């Protein structure tokens, strides 16, 4: 049974009457994307999962150490590969757009004397390190930390599929844990990817974005059919505990 979450830690449900009575330690920003997730999960999967995880992290940190972390509504500004943005309603956001959004959020928070931001990222195409470095130069008094929730622990500790990058066993299991009503498992494709045409790229000699429609038929990479809510719950429990520990450490810095 899921624990009741504190409303004053979630910007999507709280109000000024609650917020004004608290001195917040930091902000938590879930960040996802708008993109197809095979045939069985929503376009908003990355954003849904990061928001749920972020809320649990904030609640656990509050329960354990009275850390006041305000969780923002999830952002859907994901960076996409060629071939993804050709698919209907898959939206690609330039890195300059992401930079501008983070910069505006940081500027606003600094004005409010909140100087710590944790970005919980749920989309592999998002890379915020250059943005964080630039803002660290501009605002040395402000701390930004990026957490890619899916990679904090090795997948093989929880899941069976060796290939599992997008809408596969991990994401589907976590969605089954949080929102089983959003998973149409009977419609899922097998997520079997095709190798890139340049073999050296398959061997990781170099990197370039994959042409998504040449890589996968159903938009997934990884077979979701072994997914279970139990696997997702176990994975999420460990992830939430680890990120909550981070939030607790930040309270005292």
Query: Averaged pLDDT, please?
Result: 96
Shape: globular
CATH topology: Rossmann fold
Count of runs of 4 or more consecutive helical residues = 8
Overview of the structural elements:
Helix content is 37%, strand content 10%. The protein has 8 helices and 6 strands; from the N terminus they run αβαβαβαββαααβα. Helix 2 (45-65) packs across helix 5, helix 2 (45-65) packs across helix 8 and helix 5 (169-178) packs across helix 8. The chain has one domain: Rossmann fold (3-Layer(aba) Sandwich), CATH 3.40.50. The strands form 2 sheets. A 4-stranded parallel beta sheet has the order 2-1-3-4, with helices on both faces. The protein has 253 residues and is of the alpha/beta class.
How would you summarize what this structure contains?
The chain has helices at 16-19, 45-65, 95-111, 129-138, 169-178, 199-202, 212-215, 229-251; strands at residues 26-31, 69-71, 116-121, 143-148, 164-166, 221-222.
